[in-house]
Amino acid sequence: MSQPAAHPLIELVKARLREFLREPGYVFWVFGFPLLLAVGLGLAFREKTPEPPRVAVVAEIESKRTKPLFESKQLNAQSLARAEAQRALARNKVDLLVDAEGKKIVLHFDPKADRSALARAVVDDVLQRGAGRRDLVSVRDQTALKQGERYIDFLLPGLIGMNLMGSSMWGIGFNLVTQRKRRLLRRYAVTPMRRSHFLLAFVITRSLFLVFELALLVGFGKLIFGTQMQGSVGAFIVTSTLGAGAFAGISLMVGARLDNTEIANGWLNFVQLPMWLLSGPFFSYERFPEALQLPIRFLPLTALNDALRAIYNDAASLTSLGFQLAVLSGWAVLGFAVALRTFRWQ
Fold it and tell me: Which residues contact 29 (CB under 8 A, 6 or more apart)?
């Protein structure tokens, strides 16, 4: 007695899994590249003691007037001839230049540069203390931060969001274009499969690998940087799945008709680069003008980053993330619908 035929969607998912595992390049871009990116960016933005402001002190100034600057541990001061000091400031080798006009100390710096403004405040404080100023208010520094308050706690969910975007876009959209270029899709066109099954198989396969990718990145953050997820693992997985679905929908739109990998490469970068800049994987998008912040919140990577950070650091529940989840769902549905309508086999 013959067994009933398996559903075509199940067979397509199996085929996609086998195809994925047989291509080392795909495995690298989905698992290896996100991990390398997390390692590189994590090391670049790791916690470290801030470098003290760099200060060039004109050597011609009487030494006793600038002696406190060289004795202070808050500054990295060096004595240079006036011309050399001016050259160092112009080339951004120092943050501030200390000179003198008669009895007055003159501070040369760029007020629009954060480090220069900081250097000015520190130099003024050191000089005033050296001249005998007494502080009337006692202040105690508390430098240890709790989990969820460190920069790495802000950074890691952003890296996860960015990696989900990259692996979804390249693992689906670019792969689809590659198959069309190799004329593989022409063979599928003569089969009785539906286009919706074919495209949905890409999304399902991507979702299956999502759990392993998240475990890899979250485990890496905990092991190397000591980060700790404050919220629900289930909420984190649901949000990540919606995010991956949103980017899968966008990548399917890109790959629905293209048959040139160079053009596909350009379109994928065109979609991703603005979100790398605007959506705040490395810094808060609230730095942008207020008029731009609402449009930025409708970008899928912004919604994903906001939701992941809220779950990871603030133990937010899914019910409190209605706007972000609606944005991700909207992109996923829109992308898949447009891709289904515009898709062609060849």
Answer: 166, 167, 170, 171
- Rounded distance, CA 345 to CA 194, Å? 11
Give dist(CA 172, CA 66) in Å, integer. 62
Q: Which residue has the higher pLDDT, 242 or 169?
A: 242
Confidence at residue 334, expressed as pLDDT on a 0 to 100 scale = 92
Amino acid found at 150:
R
Residues 271 and 289 in one domain: yes
* Residue 237 exposed, middle or buried by CB count within 10 Å (0-12, 13-18, 19+): middle
Which CATH number does the domain housing residue 104 bear? 3.40.190.10
Asked if residue 24 is part of any domain, the answer here is yes
Task: Decide if 286 contacts 154 (C-beta within 8 A).
Answer: no
The C-alpha torsion from 307 through 312 and 315 to 316, rounded to 10°, is: 0
Picking from 250, 309, 269, the residue whose alpha carbon sits closest to that of residue 285 is 309
Q: What is d(CA 262, CA 96) in angstroms, rounded to the nearest whole number?
A: 47
| Structure-token pair, residue 243 | 């995010």
Rounded distance, CA 279 to CA 299, Å? 7
Could you tell me the pTM of the whole model?
A: 0.68
pLDDT band, residue 101 (cuts 50/70/90): confident
90 falls within a domain:
yes
* 189 or 176, higher pLDDT: 176
What is the per-residue DSSP string for 281-331? SSS-GGGS-HHHHHHHHTSHHHHHHHHHHHHHHH---GGGGHHHHHHHHHH
Residues 266-298: tens digit of each pLDDT? 888 888 888 988 888 888 888 888 888 899 999
* Count of domains for the chain: 2
Q: What is the pLDDT of residue 297?
A: 93
Query: 220 and 162 in one domain?
Result: yes
pLDDT in tens, 251-267: 888 887 777 777 877 88
